[in-house]
Amino acid sequence: MNKPLSKKFLLCVVCMLVVTVAYPVSVARSSTIVVAAVLSSDLPRYRNAHRAFVRTLAIKGYDQNAVEIITQVPNPDPISWSNAIRKFNAIGANIIIAYGAPAALAAVQESHDIPIVFVDVYAPLETGIAKSLATPGANATGISSKVPLITLVRTAMEFKAFRQIGVLYSSREIGSVVQLKEMKRIAVQQGFSVVEANVPSAAVLDSALSGMISQVDCVYITEASVMGRNLDKVIRRALDNKIPVISQVPDSGEKGALVSLEANPTVLGQQAADCAIRIFGGKKPSLTPITPPKKVDLFINMKTARVLDLHVPLKVLNLATRVIK
Fold it and tell me: Residue 92: helix, strand or coil by DSSP?
């Protein structure tokens, strides 16, 4: 007669069953590349970049038969970003694709063996995600979305010599903080002052705007998730008070910003796919240079200029790649 199963053996069996249920068999197939993608937040810019990434992989031979893509869109906070990366470590992903600086920073901190490709990160060096543009170090490389903030400011100054520029930023997102610091440096060079407002969550957005609008003659929106989700609201509130908005946030030009300088998310996703394919082929992320955005548009919104009674200089129109009439 068989002896009763030991408690330890039963526990092992249960654990094995849990793992089997939690993670599909396809994750473990050696012939499948497991691509784990994490978005810093559920914003159109990251969704558009990710769709372009997946589409480009398929076009270049890495379709659903060769690649399994697992996507996480955690709550936009440090604990959730880190937990998403830990899940990827647990399932043994072959590569991590991180959209936005918060997710990228979490990936670098939490995953030391899996190659990382970050996408749409404004300042990889300043945020501590990479050590060098040419040789990023560690296990991460990717596509920067950094565009020259000085160009955005100087273009806006062609409309009017602004004296006080309000900066909406979030202390919870390192990329947003970097842009605030950069604007402060430019302010010293260009002779205007900065009025900053920290918006770590949507709950404080109204009060931040109320406190800022009476003090400034222009508003700069940094690339924080909370601002991306409330872009329409911020721009509408500023225009109602005859205050122009400038930004680098994708879609801000279409939504009413007077001037915006935007890296195209779709092209960023395409570039990320090319980078990932090089890593599939054996290229080390630490030796793969970080690449700048291939497509950047300078938007001028003439509708907004009319609302604000601002003349659009010919020089500005000549510089613009997109004019909204």
Answer: coil
Question: Dihedrals φ, ψ of 100, to 5°?
Answer: 95, 155
Distance from C-alpha of 91 to C-alpha of 112, rounded to nearest angstrom: 14
Position 213 pLDDT exceeds 90: yes
d(CA 206, CA 24) in angstroms, rounded, equals 45
DSSP assignment string, 96-150:
EEEESHHHHHHHHHH-SSS-EEEEEES-TTTTTS-S-SSS--TTEEEEE----HH
Worst-scoring range by mean pLDDT, 5-14, 56-65, 99-108, 114-123?
Answer: 5-14
Name which of 239, 243, 246, 197 is nearest 220 in CA terms.
246
Task: Measure Cα distances from 192 to 152, 215, 255 in Å.
Answer: 14, 13, 26
- pLDDT at residue 16 is higher than 80: no
For residue 154, give both structure tokens: 């100087």
* Separation CA 290–CA 142 (nearest Å): 5
Specify the pairing of strand 218-221 against strand 193-198.
Answer: unpaired
Greatest Cα-to-Cα distance within the chain, rounded to the nearest angstrom: 95
pLDDT at 111 over 70: yes
Q: 268 falls in which pLDDT band (50, 70, 90)?
A: very high
**pLDDT given at position 17:** 34
Q: Cα separation of 192 and 155, whole Å?
A: 14
Burial 165-177 (b: 16+ CB within 10 A, else e): bbbbbbebbbbbb
Task: Of 323, 307, 284, 321, give the one whose Cα is nearest residue 115.
Answer: 284
Nearest to 123 by CA among 79, 173, 194: 173
Where do the domains of the chain lie, and which CATH numbers do they carry?
Answer: 26-145+265-294 (3.40.50.2300), 149-263+297-324 (3.40.50.2300)
Nearest by Cα to 323 from 227, 179, 306? 306
**Residue range 197-226: average pLDDT?**
95
